Amino acid sequence: MSRKKKRRRNAGILPSLEDLLFYTVAEGQEKIPAHKFLTALKATGLRSGDPRLKECMDTLKETLKNTADGVTLDRHLFKKCVQSNIVLLTQAFRKKFVIPDFQSFASHIDELYESAKSLSGGQVADYIPQLAKFSPDLWAVSLCTVDGQRHTVGDTKVPFCLQSCVKPLKYAVAVHDYWHRVMNFLKKLAGNEYVGFSNATFQSERESGDRNFAIGYYLKEKKCFPEGTDMTSVLDFYFQLCSIEVTCESASVMAATLANGGICPITGERVLSPEAVRNTLSLMHSCGMYDFSGQFAFHVGLPAKSGVAGGILLVVPNVMGIMCWSPPLDKLGNSVRGIQFCTDLVELFNFHNYDNLRHFAKKHDPRREGGDQRVKSVINLLFAAYTGDTSALRRFALSSMDMEQRDYDSRTALHVAAAEGHTEVARFLLEACKVNPVPRDRWGNTPMEEAVHFGHHDVVTILQQYTDKYSPPADADDKESAEKSLDSLL
């Protein structure tokens, strides 16, 4: 930031990011209850337990201990809590993540979940005794976007074994790391969330793995292994890999790491090389769903891997990773509810690999905000000022909207607020957004003249306070800088 811009911020001409975030969450109040901030944060898709927000959350916890009620924060304390993570928080509240309207998207996911929940077909895998113990009613979906937005629904904290879902992951290990440090690698892939081991499942698989032993010895006969390979050790290692436990939530981060080109979204650590991810996704796309792989690639068009424990690891490249889990399987060994969810997901959203062909736009794209924002912004801004919707104006300010933009008649939001007598709107525009208090419309009228004309004396008083101390920019450079939106503060 230039020294000139720093001087303007210090002089109070430009609000800080922390100020705008406070105004957005506080909605006109002088203090913010901590739970209100956390609820607003959750609506963006971020979690308070996100490793990237650790400093912010630690400071929040310590700060609340020293407040009078242990619950609320004034503007000064709020700024102290968020300043360490202000860039990430600002991106979240400005809806600059890959899924801008995350609440709406999450509600669609919940609807797809409920639709698949009603399915009752399929059989829980029983050829491995340990898997047969799971209830057929268990059903869970978790997702994690490449920006670390999280959503879960159902039995997402119940541990289950990856089974064949581990195959693309261990293939990625082989490509990237030549089989070293498998469990450590999987934990990094999951952003250090839950990754365990089920010894009971391992023993169960080993005792019932006749087919795998037969296949192993057949491969050995055909010289598929290096000389001197110990088949028992190889199969034990395979059974151990299949017995690695995850939850839907931790597995969704694994899938998101693949979607993000090998970088874990919630830790920022590169776990896999781009080449390893490319090769892994290519295999998942072509043969990840047993004998259903061709139909899945045709109808869903996304890389995925299923397992007989009922999991489906689904990757939407550059967008998100999803783990679906429900034990009942169809005749081909895939989760009945999981297949239905994946199919419904791609029917609703344009996630299929070929949905983005030119002139093909029949589905929702949650990656984009609706409509032409440049055309709508003036209308939305002035309408909010007309109706006195200060909450909307706070959101606009945080999302980098130019709060001084004008309509065809060169009228600003302050003109409209003054004419309608909305004191809170006028105060917010002047105090938080630092707008010019004396703009003139096409007829030469200022907001002050509008307020006087319509007899809104409270607005006149507020405008007078800011008009008296307002001095226009000294030169073109100052004017341009003063009119910079929130983006200039980043």
Description of the structure:
The chain is of the alpha+beta class and 490 residues long. The protein has three domains: 17-94, Orthogonal Bundle (Recoverin, domain 1), CATH 1.10.238; 102-348, 3-Layer(aba) Sandwich (Beta-lactamase); 370-468, Ankyrin repeat-containing domain (Serine Threonine Protein Phosphatase 5, Tetratricopeptide repeat, Alpha Horseshoe), CATH 1.25.40. The protein is built from 23 helices and twelve strands. It has helices at residues 3-10, 17-26, 34-43, 54-65, 75-82, 86-93, 102-117, 166-177, 182-189, 199-207, 210-221, 231-242, 248-259, 274-287, 293-299, 336-348, 373-387, 390-398, 413-420, 423-431, 447-453, 457-468, 476-482; strands at 31-33, 72-74, 123-124, 140-145, 150-154, 160-161, 195-197, 244-246, 304-306, 311-316, 320-325, 328-329. The strands form four sheets. Strands 5-4-11-10-9 form a five-stranded antiparallel β-sheet, sandwiched between helices. Strands 6-8-7 form a three-stranded antiparallel β-sheet. A two-stranded antiparallel ribbon has the order 1-2. Helix 4 runs antiparallel to helix 5 and helix 7 packs antiparallel against helix 16. The longest helix has 16 residues, at 102-117. The model is unreliable at 1-14 and 474-490 (pLDDT under 50).
